[in-house]
Amino acid sequence: SLFLGTSLTLMSNHWLMAWMGLEINTLAIIPMMTYPNNMRNTESAIKYFLMQATASMIIMFAIIYNAWMTNQWTLFQVSNEWATTIMTLALAMKLGLAPFHFWVPEVTQGIPLTSGMILLTWQKIAPTSILYQISPSLNMNLLVLLAVSSALLGGWGGLNQTHLRKILAYSSIAHMGWMTVIVSIDPSLTILNLLIYIAATMAMFLCLNFTSTTKINALSNLWNKSTPMTITMMIILLSLGGLPPLTGFMPKWLILQELIVYNNIATAMLLALSALLNLFFYMRIIYTSTLTMFPSNNTSKFQWFYTSPKSTSLIPSMTI
Fold this sequence. Notes:
2 domains, 16 helices, transmembrane helix
């Protein structure tokens, strides 16, 4: 159902079908979020459902308003300015852009790592595809405002966090800001950024799932569990931060270049500075996992030396 919902939104050119795909997508992930049945999972699932249902209702209102004003239901033609503005705000709510970002860390923190991975990667595809398709008629000023506030709040919010899922949630908010700012200038860069972000975030979540780690302080013993895993996580985090030799630098560089070409120098500067905030908390994770050693005596058993755990799902994402 999750796959079907996203596919339906990607393939449809009728507003009603695209909306139906978003609804299927929302409903399909709820059982996955509540799978180990406990209070925290249920609470997070309800928060997620309420936000998504509200956003879906607003999208439906914008669709009907646009159809009433323009007499057509085609996805590519949203010519009414009010309908476009309402649609943008509703999609921002679905994607978790600031100022509608409050649900993202809360929901991600309350659900298991696997569900969190799906929430922060796969669930972003359908709303982003709608933004991509209606990008020519979007309001540039509104997009820049949403994007810059997301990038700044995504960096600022992650600074005082110790839970890795919350840090990745704030990282997601910041990356969504980068994708949104360029969608009306060069939509293909949004897709490139999304693909690279999905690959890196999936690899990061699978690393955490593999080592059963959810807090920063638990990372100090990671070298004992798996030394290659520690190096991999370091490279993934530096790539997410956007350091030059790594893949994550490419979309940031291209986005900043396009913004400067279109004379959005202030926006480019704010985004570049917000990336430093993200890089700071990535570096803190790297410092804990690679440069500190868990206090232990010499007789402690080296786990990686005695066991060689295998993870089939981890290898492809690490390779990507």
